[in-house]
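Peptidase inhibitor family I36 protein
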Amino acid sequence: MHKGRMIGITLAALGMALAGGSLQAAAKEAPAVVAQPAAVMAGTPGMSPAPERATYVGRYDFDDYNCRSGRACLAVYNEPGGNWRVFDMYACTTYRLSEAYGQGALKNNQTGGAIVSMYGASSNHLYSFGTAGQGVHEVRDLTPVYTVRPC
């Protein structure tokens, strides 16, 4: 409910009470206040522990992004900025992904045939991607992805 509408209802109730009416009568005439759900707004994607590098690229520029040798680079759509947030993962560890929704993209430029695996909140396996150099793997849906392991 808008703040101005709530003030108007409150003033109407106060006016009736001052004019000799009851607050119960004012409450009957005032429309019911219904709580509205807060709008869901995605925040800026994040990763913990911090990857070797996190940067932003234009919405259509990940194909040209240089994922350096030995790295896996994950592109997550950044709703507030309308661009991609790219995480360059170098260390062989488990990264916790946050604020990642919808489709994403991955370049696995690791050496030695290392695979990038993605897991859900209950450690269930969701996706695996082999090495492809600068080739782009499409990640169908990052919404259920909780962790990423690039090794």
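thats it. Residues 1-19, 21-40 have pLDDT under 50 and may be disordered. Residues 46-150 form one domain. bye
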